[in-house]
Amino acid sequence: MHTDRNTVKGRTPVASSEIRSVPLEPNRAPKSPAELEADIESTRERLAGTIDAIADRVAPANVAKRSLDRLRAQFVEPDGALRTQRVLIVAAGVALVVGLAVWRRSR
Hints:
Strand content: under 5%
Distance between the termini: 74 Å
Mean pLDDT: 84
Radius of gyration: 31 Å
Helix content: 55-70%
Number of helices: 3
Largest sheet: none
């Protein structure tokens, strides 16, 4: 079956002569080349800022710092006090794992 690039699945083919562009802002006159260049430059600057923000967010050092901050928040109160109950629970878990490893090696 022959398919035309102007054919959309399930629709009747449209002749190229029937295709027309629809302005995004129907009541606005076409932009001048200077306006288009200004729009492109503005978009380029916004895109560069977005890329910089993404690069900063995924930088390994920043990811490690955020992870360490989240881990620290689990064991330290916002005022700097140690959350002793959580520390004890983790210490008991570590002691259990070490104890099991020693017991298993001795068998």
